[in-house]
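It is worth pausing here to work through a concrete case rather than discussing structure prediction in the abstract. The textbook approach is simple: state the sequence, then state the predicted structure, then interpret. We follow exactly that order.
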Amino acid sequence: MLKRDLTTSYPRSVRDKVAGVVQVGRAIDKGIAYANGLNGEYNYDCPMDKGVFEFLGIDGNALLDVIKNAQSESEIEAYVKPYVAKKTPQEIDAFNQEFLSHGPQPGSDGEKYFLNLRNEVAPGRTDVTTWPDLLDLDEKRDVPQRVGV
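Step two, the predicted structure:
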């Protein structure tokens, strides 16, 4: 079984693409860690994972079964690729752009959580308005300052 320890490291960024699609690599990292009981604060099949699974038509539990039995990450990617192949490059591009621009719903509990976390990890970074940017900041990745936000 593959190993990934998210109690001591971070999953891939939302932006890192597998088969041309954002979030897939992050979901795989969380699935590998979950299968080993090493997911820490990370949740496999969370709402962001569900978003990419829904777009591709992948069942999260079926992917987790593949992850548990895979000897290499290329086996997991081979499982994902036929789902990606059903999408046009334009559909993938549109999904990636939309996914990377997604922020919390105004007035929601999610927004409260988002703002609290942003104030904790990056006080003063009011230009950070999307989940991918906030996750990257929280995981110590560089997020360029946005101008005119």
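Step three, interpretation. The radius of gyration is 16 Å. The mean pLDDT is 96.
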